[in-house]
From TrEMBL:
This is Phosphoesterase. Pfam families: Metallophos_2. Its EC number is 3.1.4.-. InterPro entries: Calcineurin-like_PHP_lpxH (IPR024654), Metallo-depent_PP-like (IPR029052), MPP_YfcE (IPR041802), Phosphodiesterase_MJ0936/Vps29 (IPR000979). The lineage of its organism: Bacteria, Pseudomonadati, Pseudomonadota, Gammaproteobacteria, Vibrionales. Gene3D superfamilies: 3.60.21.10. PANTHER family: VACUOLAR SORTING PROTEIN VPS29 (PTHR11124). It is an enzyme of class 3 (hydrolase). GO terms for molecular function: hydrolase activity. It comes from Vibrio gallaecicus. Belongs to the metallophosphoesterase superfamily. YfcE family. The gene is yfcE. Keywords: Hydrolase, Metal-binding. Its cofactor is a divalent metal cation.
Length: 181
């Protein structure tokens, strides 16, 4: 199983097109969206190429491959544009190793406020716009950062999981960080 992670698109059409191109090139089985998909939110500037309807249209072409969760900037109005469900605060995925992967945006559950996880589980979230791939107190924390508003000097990025390895890549396909289960 090969998974592609993106978070915090915030309605940017150029960023979404880049993500979808990288997703197709990656050969991943599923595209996981970790929230804040269409709306820029009140604390962020309007991103370059802000066009939520066209972002929804582009993502809908892959609706049968998407697993998505709701971010703090996502709403029921956004869901009306999308043909895949994205209003759940979290989702579980079972990895081939038998480990559990907890998907969430990061505003409700994160590395500081964890859901009930057991040692070896994975918590994947966005929200902070900062890449992470490491163990913290027995739980593997993964954050692909943001393709629209990366923070702390990091480049726009996405993540990939394959064969027990989580990696974060810049949009220029440079490996930024990696961690193994």
């Amino acid at each position: 199983m090969k998974l592609f992670f993106a978070s915090d698109l915030h309605g940017s059409l150029p960023a979404t097109k880049e993500v979808l191109q990288r997703y197709v090139e990656s050969g991943c089985d599923h595209l996981i969206l970790l929230g804040d998909t269409l709306n820029h939110g009140p604390r962020n500037p309007i991103p370059e190429g802000y066009n939520p309807p066209q972002v929804a249209e582009a993502l809908n072409m892959y609706s049968d491959q998407i697993i998505a969760v709701r971010g703090n900037c996502d709403s029921e109005v956004d869901q009306m544009l999308l043909s895949f469900p994205m209003m759940s605060d979290y989702a579980w995925v079972l990895l081939e190793s038998g480990r559990r992967l907890f998907l969430t945006h990061g505003h409700l559950f994160n590395s500081d406020k964890r859901p009930p996880l057991k040692e070896g589980d994975v918590l994947a979230h966005g929200h902070t716009h900062i890449p992470v791939a490491q163990y913290q107190s027995g739980i593997f924390i993964f954050n692909p950062s943001s393709v629209t508003f990366p923070r702390e000097g990091h480049p726009a990025s996405y993540g990939i999981y394959q064969d027990g390895c989580f990696e974060v890549f810049s949009l220029a396909n440079e490996l930024l960080i990696s961690g193994r289960l």
